[in-house]
């Protein structure tokens, strides 16, 4: 049996389940999840290795009209990989009709030469007739190599989707060692885990105004505890007060929840030291977008 390997980009509107699908496929939590749009900000790379070959998945930010420089960066992240990969997974919600954002993405996908797999997600909460009708509408607008109906949340149809991806990949050697599920450094993943808890616990403008930078990861002497120091950046003083909360309770809750995720990642006890600082209007300033880890911003 020939060994196959290649790169697969996951694209779609915000909040259609791209990150949930990524985590389900690789069997590990690589991308953070939230019910708020624009959870994913960078291209998240995850690796699936099996007897048949190796798939490198790229989870991109959801496609929507940008409102600031950070939004422009995220849109660029979502679109630049379309012709640079072997397969595109175009993820849509089974019970969501085609709207302006979907039409914008469809117009873009109609121009790409990369094979497209249409992934109709969330069939656990939609009727199959709705899913099939939506798929038919999309297939009339773009060329689709295969269509799969799945639930990224519970795994329905995901194994069949993976088989379909392998069928479209070229023969080739593995890019990563067996057992490696991402090429992102621990600092990036830890920062994302902290940001995930902020997404879960805060509302309105707060989630989108936050950036997290991990400044230090250091084992403590004569202890099995790892010291992790991170800074939560916001755009205004009022947001800083919300993140800290009354008597520091919000920051404490964020830290407690994130620490559990980080301990599972590192396999050791964690002392998590969180700070909150203000960088006014950072989402519109190139230098801070770069400093906060958006390395592909131009």
UniProtKB/TrEMBL annotation:
<keyword id="KW-0694">RNA-binding</keyword>
<feature type="region of interest" description="G1">
    <location>
        <begin position="12"/>
        <end position="19"/>
    </location>
</feature>
<dbReference type="Pfam" id="PF01926">
    <property type="entry name" value="MMR_HSR1"/>
</dbReference>
<dbReference type="InterPro" id="IPR004044">
    <property type="entry name" value="KH_dom_type_2"/>
</dbReference>
<dbReference type="GO" id="GO:0043024">
    <property type="term" value="F:ribosomal small subunit binding"/>
</dbReference>
<keyword id="KW-0963">Cytoplasm</keyword>
<dbReference type="InterPro" id="IPR005225">
    <property type="entry name" value="Small_GTP-bd"/>
</dbReference>
<feature type="region of interest" description="G3">
    <location>
        <begin position="59"/>
        <end position="62"/>
    </location>
</feature>
<dbReference type="GO" id="GO:0000028">
    <property type="term" value="P:ribosomal small subunit assembly"/>
</dbReference>
<feature type="binding site">
    <location>
        <begin position="121"/>
        <end position="124"/>
    </location>
    <ligand>
        <name>GTP</name>
    </ligand>
</feature>
<feature type="domain" description="Era-type G">
    <location>
        <begin position="4"/>
        <end position="171"/>
    </location>
</feature>
<keyword id="KW-0472">Membrane</keyword>
<keyword id="KW-0547">Nucleotide-binding</keyword>
<protein>
    <recommendedName>
        <fullName>GTPase Era</fullName>
    </recommendedName>
</protein>
<dbReference type="InterPro" id="IPR027417">
    <property type="entry name" value="P-loop_NTPase"/>
</dbReference>
<keyword id="KW-1003">Cell membrane</keyword>
<dbReference type="GO" id="GO:0005525">
    <property type="term" value="F:GTP binding"/>
</dbReference>
<comment type="function">
    <text>An essential GTPase that binds both GDP and GTP, with rapid nucleotide exchange. Plays a role in 16S rRNA processing and 30S ribosomal subunit biogenesis and possibly also in cell cycle regulation and energy metabolism.</text>
</comment>
<dbReference type="GO" id="GO:0070181">
    <property type="term" value="F:small ribosomal subunit rRNA binding"/>
</dbReference>
<dbReference type="Pfam" id="PF07650">
    <property type="entry name" value="KH_2"/>
</dbReference>
<dbReference type="GO" id="GO:0005886">
    <property type="term" value="C:plasma membrane"/>
</dbReference>
<feature type="region of interest" description="G5">
    <location>
        <begin position="150"/>
        <end position="152"/>
    </location>
</feature>
<feature type="region of interest" description="G2">
    <location>
        <begin position="38"/>
        <end position="42"/>
    </location>
</feature>
<dbReference type="InterPro" id="IPR005662">
    <property type="entry name" value="GTPase_Era-like"/>
</dbReference>
<keyword id="KW-0690">Ribosome biogenesis</keyword>
<dbReference type="GO" id="GO:0003924">
    <property type="term" value="F:GTPase activity"/>
</dbReference>
<dbReference type="GO" id="GO:0005829">
    <property type="term" value="C:cytosol"/>
</dbReference>
<dbReference type="InterPro" id="IPR006073">
    <property type="entry name" value="GTP-bd"/>
</dbReference>
<feature type="binding site">
    <location>
        <begin position="12"/>
        <end position="19"/>
    </location>
    <ligand>
        <name>GTP</name>
    </ligand>
</feature>
<dbReference type="InterPro" id="IPR030388">
    <property type="entry name" value="G_ERA_dom"/>
</dbReference>
<dbReference type="InterPro" id="IPR015946">
    <property type="entry name" value="KH_dom-like_a/b"/>
</dbReference>
<keyword id="KW-0342">GTP-binding</keyword>
<dbReference type="InterPro" id="IPR009019">
    <property type="entry name" value="KH_sf_prok-type"/>
</dbReference>
<keyword id="KW-0699">rRNA-binding</keyword>
<feature type="domain" description="KH type-2">
    <location>
        <begin position="202"/>
        <end position="280"/>
    </location>
</feature>
<feature type="binding site">
    <location>
        <begin position="59"/>
        <end position="63"/>
    </location>
    <ligand>
        <name>GTP</name>
    </ligand>
</feature>
<feature type="region of interest" description="G4">
    <location>
        <begin position="121"/>
        <end position="124"/>
    </location>
</feature>
<comment type="subunit">
    <text>Monomer.</text>
</comment>
<comment type="similarity">
    <text>Belongs to the TRAFAC class TrmE-Era-EngA-EngB-Septin-like GTPase superfamily. Era GTPase family.</text>
</comment>
């Amino acid at each position: 049996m020939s060994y196959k390997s290649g790169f697969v980009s996951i694209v779609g509107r915000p909040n259609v389940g791209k990150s949930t699908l990524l985590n389900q496929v690789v069997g590990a939590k690589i991308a953070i999840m939230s019910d708020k749009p624009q959870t994913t900000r960078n291209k998240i790379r995850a690796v699936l290795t099996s007897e048949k070959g190796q798939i490198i998945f790229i989870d991109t930010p959801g496609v929507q009209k940008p409102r600031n420089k950070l939004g422009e960066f995220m849109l660029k992240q979502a679109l630049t990989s379309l012709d640079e990969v072997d397969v595109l997974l175009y993820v849509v919600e089974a019970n969501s009709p085609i709207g302006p954002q979907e039409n914008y993405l469809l117009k873009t996908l109609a121009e790409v030469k990369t094979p497209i797999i249409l992934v109709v997600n969330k069939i656990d909460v939609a009727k199959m007739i709705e899913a099939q009708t939506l798929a038919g509408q999309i297939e009339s607008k773009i060329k689709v190599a295969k269509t799969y109906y799945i639930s990224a949340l519970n795994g329905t149809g995901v194994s069949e989707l993976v088989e379909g991806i392998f069928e479209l990949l070229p023969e080739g050697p593995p890019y990563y060692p067996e057992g490696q599920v991402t090429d992102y450094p621990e600092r990036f993943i830890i920062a994302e885990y902290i940001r995930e808890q902020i997404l879960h616990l805060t509302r309105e403008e707060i989630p989108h105004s936050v950036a997290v930078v991990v400044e230090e990861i250091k084992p403590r002497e004569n202890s099995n505890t790892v010291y992790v120091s991170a800074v939560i950046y916001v755009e205004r003083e009022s947001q800083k007060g919300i993140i800290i909360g009354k008597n520091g309770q919000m920051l404490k809750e964020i830290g407690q929840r994130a620490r559990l995720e980080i301990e599972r990642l590192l396999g050791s006890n964690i002392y998590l030291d969180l700070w909150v600082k203000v960088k006014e209007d950072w989402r519109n300033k190139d230098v801070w977008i770069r400093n906060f880890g958006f390395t592909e911003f131009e």
